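Example record

Each entry pairs one chain with its bound ligand, flavin-adenine dinucleotide.
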Amino acid sequence: MNASELYVTEVAIIGGGPAGIAAAVRVAESGRRAVIVDEGPNLGGQIWRHRPETVHKLPANARRWLDRLRAASGAITVLSGTSVVDARQEGGDSGFTLSGERAHTHCLVRAKAVIVATGARERWIPFPGWTLPGVFGVGGAQALLKSGVSFRGKRVIIAGTGPLILPVAAALAKDGARLLLVAEQAASASVASFALGLWRKPGTLAQAAKYRAAFRGTPYRMGQWITAARGDGHVEEVDITDGQTTRTIACDAACVGFGLVPNLELARLLGCELTSGAVQVDARQQTSRAGVYSAGEIAGIGGVEVALAEGEIAGLCASGRSAEARRLMVRRARLRKSLASMERAFAPRDELRALTTAETIVCRCEDVAFGAITRAAGLRQAKLYTRAGMGPCQGRVCGASLEFLLGWNADSVRVPSEPVLLSTLMHAMPNPSPSITETRS
Ligand SMILES: Cc1cc2nc3c(=O)[nH]c(=O)nc-3n(C[C@H](O)[C@H](O)[C@H](O)COP(=O)(O)OP(=O)(O)OC[C@H]3O[C@@H](n4cnc5c(N)ncnc54)[C@H](O)[C@@H]3O)c2cc1C
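Structure tokens for the complex follow.
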């Protein structure tokens, strides 16, 4: 069995997206020490995902935060390429222990306080053909582009909802994809009233206009959605409907996105209460567990500005400097308030529930069709009877789909929260092997 690495610190931060970066910077600038753990090869999370050689292409705001992080590096240990698979509170006053895997080695982080900033993932609404190669999540396509994969010359359809489809359409057009259609499922009246409500945020409107200009040669249709994808081993065509008429469009790739859902597994392992599908936090971003804070998408889908403000608040409060967070709390409240109208405008329409037929695969890890799942009385029974949600992704994809389709909530989470090596699993058990290399941070 490989030895473990042990890191002992004051504040452990899970997630190196905007929320985790802002939290780490504030902890370090408060004179405390932090360990920030992220499973990606570089910090930045979803929106600031980059390779070292493309860091200059990040927006100025992202570069400023990464510079601040570098300036505080004496107080921050960064563990990239490290997946946390267990998080627990130790007895008495001993704080928290995170257990993870890094380059095939088990690692432990012990800390007095934890900030969970694990972000969000895409929600899939399964439709016939959604598992075909060439059908991507919009965020997944964006991640591929940022990691250097090109769609140049490919005929691409984007179908989904929400503001995220705009930067992805712009990025694909810039990459040289032949973007045939961008279909937004929300009705044009909803999108128009949302856009009108943005008059107080000219920066956001200007950004949206800039994205739209980048794919100006492509129709951007409201009130239209994908109903099926077909192809022989790879997507070759998709059906798009407006509820009245359905047309078939030949394509090489379909990028589909029906919103985001928070990554709650580790917060749940720590025993944090949830509210409306996100981690419940107080004004200081503290969860229902004393010493556990949460920031960014995991505390409610809100975008990068909210993630930064919440990360800063969590970092300050976890360092005992709540008074300095007051101004940020006002800013957070203002930002969060304006999000409610976005949620309303881009709420998935009821017709989308009819996309998933009895034959549609819902759990793609275990190949379980919707018809088999609906014979069960709930998620637990569906797992027992069909193995839905029991595969490598542990229900990360089908869990959110079934919540949308049937209102079923995943009621349990198990260690390890992600697949790991057997040696890591053995270390991750409550009494890990004593063969550890200790690093103090
Ligand atoms: C796929 C995707 C693409 C997106 N693209 C855009 C975009 O182009 N433009 C835009 O404005 N917004 C985009 N968003 C929304 C954007 O992610 C958020 O607005 C913003 O990044 C939120 O910051 P965050 O720090 O809360 O989360 P994130 O940026 O998601 O960061 C969370 C971090 O936690 C890490 N993590 C999660 N679980 C673990 C674990 N178990 N162990 C270790 N690390 C872990 C992840 O690797 C990630 O780096 C995207 C979201 C998604 C899901």
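Residues 14-20, 37-40, 45-47, 83-84, 117-122, 139, 142-143, 164, 167, 260, 263, 266, 296-297, 303-304, 307 surround flavin-adenine dinucleotide (CB under 6 Å).
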